[in-house]
Write a structure and sequence with these properties.
This protein has 12 helices and 13 strands. It is of the alpha/beta class. It has 2 domains: 123 residues, 3-Layer(aba) Sandwich (Rossmann fold); 174 residues, Rossmann fold. Helix 7 crosses helix 8, helix 7 packs across helix 12 and helix 9 crosses helix 10. It is elongated and about 60 Å long.
Length: 336
């Protein structure tokens, strides 16, 4: 360990130790941090895990069985950082683990009163942590980055809602993730139509997913163009919990680089992600049931995602389905 305020020798987490795990900002990044925390809880099931994240994710993470308590806060603006600081100071945590790279979160950890602080930051703020997450996990005997098991769990009531919504669709269903945080990460609408129309004609149930006004407009365009009773447009209709339930009711998922892509993959749904650059593994999408199709790798001219044709996506999807017949699929992750 680096700088320490205590002379105690480094020790493993003990039963009953209060552990605060921090991750803010985008849903996909927060989900991957929660997957890291799930790997910790597999190793130390008797530790008491609190997960600190944005308020909009509260209901979703409250439903996760490996998280004992959910704490909400923000790292900006300053007034919100100050409120979050006081919540942490009053929590009596022995361990603070940060999945956030940044000075504001490093300062939250530094003044948390926790005996051990785990995380990484820039050189200027590095002294606020005792050890990096990867090194600490290795010392504790687990791999935080492992993605060998589903780590998102869905309450039965959310599965029931999803089943009811999809009751008229064929049993072969595809969860389609239309959105992304940036336009350059989005496959064009006309390509989605060209990819999905033949699948609907072949008897696939198509479930469209998204969550903002722009994605709702795209969903309506696709719904009108595909014009099939096998298509269900759920864009803008699902919260994150019900989104996970809908994903689990599908045989596979295909989508852009977006938070719900991480959600589907972490639920254990065989997932094909469409990317401009080969970044999926770095972002945590290392599941054996996840496949990446990168536009730069497909074309020698390194085309952007918006220029990726329908044919390679259809081919990659069929190849993924072939792997499913060979048993590359984990058990669905549900809770009561």
């Amino acid at each position: 360990m680096n700088e320490k305020n205590t002379q105690e020798k480094f020790a493993l987490p003990q039963p009953g130790d209060k552990v605060l795990w921090i991750r803010f900002l985008t849903f996909g990044d927060v989900l991957e941090a929660a997957a890291d925390a799930y790997n910790f809880k597999r190793r130390f099931p008797q530790a008491r895990l609190t997960f600190l994240t944005n308020p909009e994710y509260l209901d979703f993470f409250r439903a996760q069985p490996h998280i004992d308590e959910t704490l909400v806060g923000r790292k900006s603006p300053l007034a919100e950082w100050w409120r979050t600081f006081h919540k942490i100071r009053g929590g009596d945590y022995k361990w603070v683990v940060s999945g956030q790279w940044g000075g504001k979160t490093a300062l939250l950890a530094r003044f948390s009163r926790a005996l051990y602080r785990i995380g990484e930051s820039s050189l200027f703020f590095k002294h606020n942590y005792h050890m990096g997450l990867s090194a600490w996990a290795h010392a504790c005997g687990f791999d935080a980055a492992a993605r060998d098991l589903p780590s998102v769990f869905v309450p039965e009531e959310d599965l029931t809602v999803a089943r009811a919504l999809m009751s008229h669709l064929p049993e072969r269903r595809l969860f389609v993730l239309l959105g992304a945080g940036k336009e350059k990460k989005m496959w064009p609408t006309n390509r989605w139509i060209g990819f999905l129309r033949p699948l609907a004609d072949e008897g696939w149930g198509i479930v469209l997913n998204g969550h903002d006004l722009a994605e709702e407009a795209i969903g309506r365009q696709i719904e009108k163009a595909v014009a099939s009773s096998n298509l269900l447009n759920l864009v803008g209709r699902l919260d994150f919990k019900k989104m996970a339930g809908a994903a689990l009711c599908c045989r596979a998922a295909v989508g852009n680089d977006t938070g719900p892509l991480h959600l589907a993959a972490l639920c254990g749904v065989p997932t094909l992600g469409l990317f401009s650059h080969p970044t999926s593994r770095l972002m945590g999408l290392r599941m054996p049931w996840f496949q990446e199709l990168c536009a730069e790798n497909w074309s020698k001219s390194k085309i952007p995602l918006k220029d990726l044709p329908v044919e390679p996506v259809a081919k990659a999807f069929k190849e993924m389905l072939g792997q499913l017949t060979e048993g590359v699929r984990p058990a669905h992750s549900t809770t009561t």
